[in-house]
Design brief:
Strand content: 15-25%
Helix content: 10-25%
InterPro entries: DUF7455
Distance between the termini: 47 Å
Radius of gyration: 14 Å
Number of strands: 3
Organism: Glutamicibacter protophormiae
Protein name: DUF7455 domain-containing protein
Pfam family, one: DUF7455
Largest sheet: 3 strands, antiparallel
Order of helices and strands: EEHE
Shape: elongated
Length: 74
């Protein structure tokens, strides 16, 4: 499986193709180059079957556990 660098980070405008929640995983299909976006929940659900068929599995779900940065000057 070949892995390529994602063109950009996922943001709040990227939505899960299954449920519409914020997407944290981008899967690029090796056969067509098509892109699928998933929330962390649905990515875990489809990963065992889908990941072997991808050229890129870009997972940003660790961002779910990041603490927001707080500016003490605000």
């Amino acid at each position: 499986m070949t892995t390529t660098t994602p063109s950009r980070e996922l943001n709040a405008l990227d939505r899960c193709d299954r449920c519409g929640a914020q997407a944290y995983v981008r899967a690029v299909l090796a056969s067509t180059g098509g892109e699928l976006l998933f929330c962390a929940h649905h990515a875990r659900d489809v990963e065992p079957k889908l990941r072997p068929q991808t050229s890129l599995w870009h997972d940003e779900s660790s961002r779910l556990y990041e603490k927001p940065k707080v500016d003490i000057n605000d």
